[in-house]
Design goal:
about 120 residues, about 15% strand, single chain, 4-stranded antiparallel β-sheet, alpha+beta, 3 helices
Length: about 120
């Protein structure tokens, strides 16, 4: 069972899902502005939402012209379509681990760029 509630800043949820903008549907571990608080007894709910986000499933459910958003009814509909108990947990974890590795590589890239700037400045 997975429940969605508009995040008010008071409650602690299992994870959060961005409601507005181009990244609507993106799951996060920390609350952000304009998000849903997600409560679930499914062990791999976060990984499932991450896979749905990376597969761009949420894109066709976005509403709005100036600023796009997704509502809880859309999320519930997506779950009815894509939720299964028999997802391979190893594959779900692998997708998340790849994301973690990409984050680490992005941090390394930033550090290398900073080192490059420092070295360039020291030469001048």
């Amino acid at each position: 069972m997975i429940k969605f509630r508009t995040y008010t800043g008071k409650e602690k949820a299992d994870f959060y899902v961005q409601r507005h903008g181009e990244n609507a549907g993106r799951p996060t571990k920390q609350p952000i502005r304009n998000c849903f608080a997600v409560y679930s007894n499914y062990n791999h709910a976060f990984e499932l939402f991450y896979c749905l986000y990376k597969a761009q499933v949420f894109k066709k459910y976005l509403h709005g012209t100036a600023q796009q958003f997704i509502n809880s009814r859309n999320l519930e509909e997506i779950l009815r379509i894509y939720y299964r108990e028999d997802y391979n947990p190893k594959k779900l974890k692998a997708v998340q681990e790849i994301n973690n590795l990409l984050d680490i590589e992005a941090q390394k890239r930033i550090l290398l760029q900073e080192m490059q700037i420092t070295l360039a400045k020291s030469l001048l």
